[in-house]
Amino acid sequence: MAEERLPVPVPRRGFLDLLSKIFLSLWGFGFIGVIYAYLRPQHRQVLLDETFRAGSLSALRVGDAFITQHQSGPVLIVRTGDRDVIAFSALCTHMRCILHWAGDTRTILCPCHGGVFDWNGNVLSGPPPRPLQRYSVEIRNEDIFVRMA
Amino acid sequence: MRSGPPAWSKAIRLAFRLLAPPLLVPVLLCADDTGRCGVCHGDVRVLFEAGIHHKEQISCVSCHGGDEGSDDLRAAHGGEPSAPARRKIPELCASCHSDIGKMKVYNLPTDQYALYQSSQHGIMLARGNTDVAVCTDCHGVHDIYPRSDPRSSVYRSNIPKTCARCHSDPALIKKYHWASDPYREFAGSVHGRALLEQGDLGVPDCSRCHGVHGAAPPGVGDVAKVCGQCHGAAREYFELSPHRSAMAAAGEPECASCHSNHSTQPAGDVLLGTSCKGCHGAGDPAMKVAREIHDELTDTRRQVDRASGLIADAEAVPLNVDDYRARLEEARSYLTESLPAVHSFSLAQVRAITVRSRSICEEIIREVQEKLDGLRWRKYGLVIFWFYLILTLVILTRFKRGLGAAVEKEETGQK
Amino acid sequence: MRLSPAGRVLDWFEARLNLTELFSFLTSFGLFIVELDTRKPIREALPEALKRPIPSYARWPRVLGILTLLIFLFQVSSGLLLAFYYRPATPGAYESVRTIVRDVSLGWFIHQMHFWGSSALILILLARILRHYFDGLYRAPRELLWVLSFLLFIAATHADFSGRILTWESTTYWSTTRALELFSLLPFVGTAFAFLVGGSNIGDAALTRFYFIHIVFLPLALLALFYLHFLVVRRVGLSPAPGEAAQQGILAYKRYLLNLLIVLVLVFGLLVTLSVLFPLPFDKKADVLTTPAGALPPWYLLPAFGFVTLTPHFIPNPIKGTIVLLTLVAVTLLPFLDRPAAQSPTGRLGRLVAGLFFLLLLIGLGLYGYSHA
């Protein structure tokens, strides 16, 4: 090889030199490994997922509601009309208890201190100081999408 | 006060009467709907014109009688003493406020006078006691504002102070042997702090429990009903508990026995340990139940705090723990839900709820701790990296040394 | 002579391109400070250059210059990696950085290395400037070297400064805001800077401009400065310490390169260690409406910050700014302000005292600024 004839004429140490060079080349592999691990397409959706699919419209009758989980907390989805769906944070504005949907009276109940909200999120009675926080909803192809803003 | 005006006062009035007509001509020309009363009673006029009655075209004579158009002193006052007697005031106000025809347009209820007559205040007034509150004591005399106006003395957050004018008056407390100063107690209570300091209009003022015009202290059996209007879940559990019948039998006011009446304290874990002692002796098995419930709640709260602390630690790194935040919210919700269940005084009922909170917390703690432990690998990696790095340095210096020798050999060879 | 396949490929290119010339041009950006004999093919020219004797004083302080270039290249590559995930917009910047440091595997490592690398670059440039000053190396024929070194330092601090805001965290956001208050005091430069970043308060527009300045404008400026800098180094040679100049070369150039590698490995090891053991904490998202207490400007601005807070209030701010600016200009033009008499032993002592005094003054002002933020 051409490089062999360059300086560093250390006799009988050729093998050790070769070993050293192989060892040093590990740096290159290390760098490539780090860059590969970093740039590899990630398995889960790691970028912003503000909008999520909460369910399908056909599975929800008008005047009915359900609670679904999102990373940032439970979300209550109410279908108020044919194409009208409202989404609330399902946390009571009083002590952050998780609310229940009372289908027979079409109200939202807090199990902790008896707060009652109507299906527009307004306080009907009890201790909650504010109406429920609303999220915007979009309906695309019979699917309900909620935007957590 | 007006019983004996001094002689100089009479002299001034006389002088005024003689001089007034020529002087007052310009003033009278400007005098408007308060009539001519405001010419002399300027200070009252200012108060009255700010209030709601002035806006609704009620004038001085509606209450005081007399003739507001006259500038003759005697004719103007109608020969009557100007201030209505205290005893007559409720009747006077009721002459309009109980008239359905008049009140209809304002959408005001007309039963207040009837309610007042049924109240402790009304009953005692009928007996001739004029220490009690009449309409003007609470609503103001001339400067009466609607209830929704924050300037009004009967605005929600002003009510405690208004009641306190009499009920915290040391002279009256002494005279009627009242047990305590309710305003001071209320101001230090959980309700009082929320209403008076934070302006939270959702909490009860005096009238929410005692009634408004029908003011009366709630009776022994009614306390749970009054408190239960807001604390519904607590009441439901209480109805099922052994305390319900035992307290009724012993004639104890249900909620107030433990939580006190005016100085209501937040239902903390502490209360559970201390307030039982009033009835239950130290060796009573009921005390053991209380202690168990207390321990159950503090344990659960500690678990929730630990889980929340771990999540905060992980977020500071940062690690992705968004899913655990939602789960923690659930655990916290169960903990809050379990607090009213304490009123059942059954460990099983409380535990049925707290066990959910605890199992969620345990799961969070286990999994987040696992994630945090995973960070150790960064340090292990660093140790391996340094091992590799030192070996690299050794090799490089070896190269360098070999090189140095070679070059020097070459140099000397050339020489 | 039998040739290896690699040698044959090299020869194929050699017949069509002057590889030696190409190599010489590319290495003008540093790394190879020895002149190449461009008439020879690269396979002969390189070993010949590697064996060429260079002054024996080319020991480790002399590798700092090339080290800065290597760190700069490292910053460019780690920055490129970060740009794969970064989004320069106000709803999104913070979230994308969080994605990098939290969700992408080894993203935290790249991010921390980029941060510590930037501090290392500034510190090594500073160390070089101090060495040049105390060894009196800024005088002829190295005046231009001094000016370029100092401009490199200024450009590197700007690169660090413009990079801080990009994460849109609470601490860095307010740190930058405090620093911009300082910038706005500088006459001319302040207005020019405010003009460039799109106003004195930092919003969406400023973020985009900072991003552009950080990833295009300043790297190009740095690259140009490095190029000029190493052209000058090739011309005037490595800088000797006093008394070393007389010794002549007994060392091969290859040895110099090995020295460089050793220092590079050590610095890299230090950066990795700092990144793992002392990571810059990742703060909450910046809230534009609430200023947290104790927001400090970046450390290299602390002396100027301390100066502005320490001097009495009746001095108008533009005058304070002018003093800071004039100091920077004076330091840049130091070789032309210094009298030739400073060559004498008493002159050297004077320079030493003046330098130490100025250094202590900067540190004192910096500490004052740190405690009075």
Could you walk me through the main structural features you see in this protein, from its secondary elements to its overall organization?
- The complex is a heterotrimer of chains A (149), B (415) and C (373).
- In chain A, strand 9 (134-140) and strand 10 (143-147) form a beta hairpin.
- Chain A is elongated and about 90 Å long.
- Chain A has one helix at residues 14-39; strands at 51-56, 65-70, 73-79, 85-89, 100-102, 107-109, 116-117, 123-125, 134-140, 143-147.
- Chain A has a six-stranded antiparallel sheet with strand order 1-10-9-4-3-2, with no helix packed on it.
- Chain A is built from one helix and ten strands.
- Chain B is an all-alpha fold.
- Chain B is built from 25 helices and no strands.
- The model of chain B is unreliable at 407-415 (pLDDT under 50).
- Chain C has 15 helices and two strands.
- The mean pLDDT of chain C is 83.
- Chains in contact: A-B, A-C, B-C.
- Chains B and C meet through helix 25 of B and helix 5, strand 2 and helix 11 of C.
Key descriptive features of the protein:
heterotrimer, A: alpha+beta, six-stranded antiparallel sheet, four-stranded antiparallel sheet, 10 strands, B: 415 residues, mainly alpha, 0% strand
In short:
Helix content of chain A is 17%, strand content 32%. Chain A has one helix at residues 14-39; strands at 51-56, 65-70, 73-79, 85-89, 100-102, 107-109, 116-117, 123-125, 134-140, 143-147. In chain A, the strands form two sheets. In chain A, strands 1-10-9-4-3-2 form a six-stranded antiparallel sheet, with no helix packed on it.
Poorly predicted segments of chain C: none
| Distance separating the two termini of chain C | 72 Å
Coarse morphology of chain B: elongated
Quote the distance from N terminus to C terminus of chain B: 131 Å
Alpha carbon gyration radius of chain B? 38 Å
Largest sheet of chain C: 2 strands, antiparallel
Q: Please state the CA-atom Rg of chain C, rounded to the nearest Å.
A: 23 Å
What is the strand arrangement across the widest sheet of chain C?
Answer: 1-2
Tell me the series of helices and strands of chain C, N- to C-terminal.
Answer: HHHEHHHHHHHEHHHHH
Strand fraction band of chain C? under 5%
Biggest β-sheet strands, sense, barrel of chain B: none
Number of strands of chain C: 2
What is the residue-averaged pLDDT of chain B? 81
**Strand content bin of chain B:** under 5%
Helical content of chain B (DSSP H or I, runs of 4+): 55-70%
Output the number of helix runs of chain C: 15
Structural class of chain B: mainly alpha
- The shape of chain C is globular
Pattern of helices and strands of chain B: HHHHHHHHHHHHHHHHHHHHHHHHH
